[in-house]
Amino acid sequence: MCADVHRVEDQAGRDGRGSEQHRLEGCDAGTLVETFEHVDPNRLSDARKFDAEGHLHASRMNIEFEELAYRRTPLGELILRRRTEPALGVEVFEVKLGDAFLMSSLFTAGEIALANLGLAGLGSGPLDVVVGGLGLGYTARAVLGHPAVRSLLVVEALRDVIDWHRRGLVPLGAGLSADRRCEFLNGDFFALVDSPGIDSRDLGRRFHAILVDIDHSPRQVLHPSHAALYGREGLRRLAAHLHPGGVFALWSNDPPDQDFRDALAEVFAQCDAHIVTFRNPLQDRDAANTIYAARTATASCESGSGTRASRLDSS
Hints:
Layout: E1 6-9, E2 56-57, E3 65-73, E4 76-85, E5 90-97, E6 100-104, H1 109-119, E7 127-132, H2 138-144, E8 149-156, H3 159-166, H4 173-178, E9 182-186, H5 189-193, E10 207-212, H6 232-239, E11 242-252, H7 258-267, E12 270-280, E13 285-295, H8 299-305
Parallel strand pairs: 1-12, 7-8, 7-10, 8-9, 10-11
Antiparallel strand pairs: 2-5, 3-4, 4-5, 5-6, 11-13, 12-13
């Protein structure tokens, strides 16, 4: 069964996504219909201006607000914008869909913890990793910060989000796009999990870690089609894409869910729930996310007792 819940405190206090924060990454790309996109060519992001956290300091800013990209969709207006946050003296990148704020470069500790907790204990590599949900790129960058990582495949349903990175419109875009280990895949992560292979070019390929940050939580999903992943059969299908001893890690905005932990324990050899606490500087309060990390049985355990998850043939 799952181990006790662990608490992880983010000293920097950078993450502020509360329960009211909506998510974007899992939206069906087919529902997005382009009408126009506006980018000021004189204000494209220069990655050299950003600090290690993806913030542009006030001393280098010459605008207070700018809309970088716009697309009208059936779900509302999809907007990428940047603005000055005067209380903190940094420039913030935000994504809005209609009236909802979906992502912010000011709040990133949860995404970073997903990568670090997911890769902890996997050894010196080389490691092949999948990230489900690109967002503003903070999980992907944290993954690439581990020298053991050989390759990273980032699956993102919205082509716009990938384009923002490739065009340098977001703080981490230039660095991720230039890293030869990193590849963006425009696709439905959930459909790929149900397919013979997440990497369609190599259907037998397995990964050492699959890190997912798409839905609000296992119970609060962006689309009904996502719910199956969080049940026992869905978890078995996901585990089949992992090497023996590989890790599935999941970001959640809810407290640890015992039913989901029980499902993880049925499929995986080991699972943990980490509560990541952080300070929200705008609301002047503490908040928390949950990171689930589950590991498949090692090869020696499988040979001795079989495996609870169906697996792909070795390639």
